[in-house]
């Protein structure tokens, strides 16, 4: 059997998993789903789901990953001593594949914006024009497909080298830089005229705005931002030495990710209200609002460029994790096959993603269930496959892996006590599956409210 690689340092693992978590989910998706899903009430639910369901699941994925020390498909087989459980890993591979096919489209949008700034094409007269400018950019079939391809190419080149090399070093610089830039951005946003309207919109819950669908979106969003239910965290934890403190790592990642999502919200919504834009503008929201906020700062375009580069980096480190789970599964961690299969995977994902890419332009009228191809892919992955994967993983870990194995694995590298373990176990065994099932049943209309 191929020798499993290991992270070079403790912080390397945190950075890579935080890199997988922090990406388009917190920065691009969170503001727009919060904007369409009810503002403060959505945010409240998102935080609750993150803490009550996301946290135990993340620890669960870390635990079985480190215990298994192999690719995600074999991890499930090994820990349950039954080959049929490998399907959870296979489902994760499939979900990652579809996810990256539309994720790379948005990654391409960031690249296009970077090119626009560098070539001087982003100077407009008034703040509302950014919306139209952006819609123009993403409706061009040629440049968007090329940009999507470029995004995938970078992911292929890095992952084919083995993720440890690139990610650990780069993340140590980029992640703090992203945080610092976000702090500056939030300060600027909060000092815009009318900023408080935006803060209220994001933070003050009005539960009457919630619908069954927005509850599902909040659930999906909390899994999406933490890369849960896909076995990506299982894969990353398989490279983990036994000395790593799992609860502490999980808490750090959740904290970092939530702070970034909160800052994204605080950077965007004051701008939305100050410039009289619509909070429910959808996927275009951040691309229309942020340039306007930066425009109102000294050296605005230079800072916007720096922001976009860091944003692209954040999206790429998430993309690496999606490619990694697929490559780790098909090569069974055999390093000699890595290059070939990374290329194959990357190119296939790019091809499957083309219709999503075109659905903001030439394919905008092609709809299934009243959704464009892009929206359909996103909905299927974020609101069906990821929560379903999370449900299966919660059931698997809490019911099919021996409790003693879990306890002794969790104890390695941490000194958590019995009580913490029991709370974690109950959350995973009962609360997580029941909550996910209730949200699903609610969406299909079982509970009228
Ligand atoms: N967590 C990533 C983000 O928020 O952008 C998205 C993601 C990465 C989801 C990897 C799932 C995954 F397996």
Provide tags for this entry:
single chain, 449 residues, mainly alpha, Hydantoin permease, two-stranded antiparallel sheet, 18 helices, 2 strands, 76% helix, globular, binds 4-fluoro-L-phenylalanine, transport, transmembrane helix, transmembrane
Question: Would you spell out the secondary-structure blueprint of this structure?
Answer:
Blueprint: H1 10-21, H2 24-37, H3 40-68, H4 72-80, H5 86-118, H6 129-139, H7 141-160, H8 163-190, H9 195-203, H10 212-225, H11 232-237, H12 246-274, H13 285-295, H14 300-331, H15 338-358, E1 367-368, E2 371-372, H16 373-400, H17 403-411, H18 418-443
Antiparallel strand pairs: 1-2
Bound molecules: 4-fluoro-L-phenylalanine.
Description of the molecule:
It is a single chain. The protein is mostly helical. The protein has one domain: Hydantoin permease (Orthogonal Bundle), CATH 1.10.4160. The protein is 76% helix and 1% strand. The chain contains 18 helices and 2 strands. The protein has a two-stranded antiparallel ribbon. Helix 3 packs antiparallel against helix 12 (246-274), helix 9 (195-203) packs across helix 12 (246-274) and helix 10 (212-225) packs across helix 16. The longest helix has 33 residues, at 86-118. The protein is globular. The site of 4-fluoro-L-phenylalanine (PFF) has 16 residues, from helix 1, helix 2, helix 5, helix 10 and helix 14. 4-fluoro-L-phenylalanine binds next to helix 1, helix 2, helix 5, helix 10 and helix 14.
